[in-house]
Design brief:
Blueprint: E1 2-3, H1 10-18, E2 24-26, H2 31-37, E3 44-45, E4 50-57, E5 66-74, E6 84-86, E7 89-99, H3 105-113, H4 116-127, H5 139-163, H6 173-181, E8 185-190, E9 193-198, H7 204-216, H8 229-233
Parallel strand pairs: 1-2
Antiparallel strand pairs: 2-7, 3-4, 4-5, 5-7, 6-7, 8-9
């Protein structure tokens, strides 16, 4: 489990440890933890900018000692640094993680950074599928509505996987809606026939013809027990 500083609490970490669940949680730089950081003298240099270290430490209100991983980044004049500054250590910012994993400190940091893609998916759910724009009277009704949004999001993911199994590109829900699923059209006539005039900006019918053909010939789902007996015997 990877979590931000909002989950940095002894009772929550104990909950994970009781169930033997590995975790990496961002630590809040309280004054007590800062005092321990000031005592660090040994750092492992990753490159010219980044260094890592680790130590075991027990906060005053914690039940047990835990492992802390610290990433120190040198502040660059042309790059916004991610982390917190310590007044007594100018020129650097720090990111501190608490974990029960035994991997090297550098791997802990790299693994947590993989959480960034999750933040993008959360942003898409909120801003493109309106996952945070409803609140029903019943808790379970709200949960059901939210799960319906998640289900739709997963369907869009499977749709992309079907179109591009190699997943060379990723399109956000809003992009799929405007490029694939939504098309401006006008219902008109050609002689005695109704005709649907579709927007050229959508790519035209010729590029979507295989897609429509698949939809029109999609077999209706039926239970095997309704198939002819001879077919079932075969």
């Amino acid at each position: 489990m990877r979590a931000d500083a909002g989950f940095y609490a002894d009772h929550f970490l104990s909950f994970l440890e009781e169930r033997a669940l590995p975790y990496i949680v961002v630590a809040r730089l309280t004054s007590y933890l800062k005092s321990r950081l000031y005592q660090v003298t040994q750092w492992h240099a990753i490159d010219r900018i980044y260094c890592v270290t680790e130590f075991n430490f027990k906060l005053w209100n914690w039940k047990t000692e835990r492992r802390f991983v610290v990433v120190r980044e040198e502040v660059q004049p042309n790059k916004a640094a991610v982390g917190r500054k310590l007044l007594d250590l100018p020129g650097y910012v720090f990111r501190v993680f608490v974990t029960n994993r035994r991997d090297p400190a550098l791997e802990i940091w790299r693994d947590y950074n993989g959480r960034a893609t999750v933040e993008c998916r959360i942003d898409e759910l909120k801003n493109e599928l309106a996952a945070d724009h409803f609140c029903l009277r019943s808790f379970f009704a709200t949960e059901s509505a939210f799960l319906a949004v998640l289900f739709g999001f997963n369907l869009l993911g499977e749709f992309q996987r079907a179109l591009d199994p190699a997943r060379k590109t990723y399109k956000q829900p809003a992009t799929l809606r405007f490029e694939v699923l939504t098309c401006g059209a006008i219902l008109g006539r050609s002689g005695h026939h109704l005709v649907l005039h579709m927007s050229k900006n959508w790519g035209g019918y010729s590029s979507r013809k295989p897609f429509f053909k698949s939809l029109l010939h999609w077999p209706p789902p039926t239970s095997p027990k309704f198939d002819p007996a001879i077919k079932n015997a075969a």
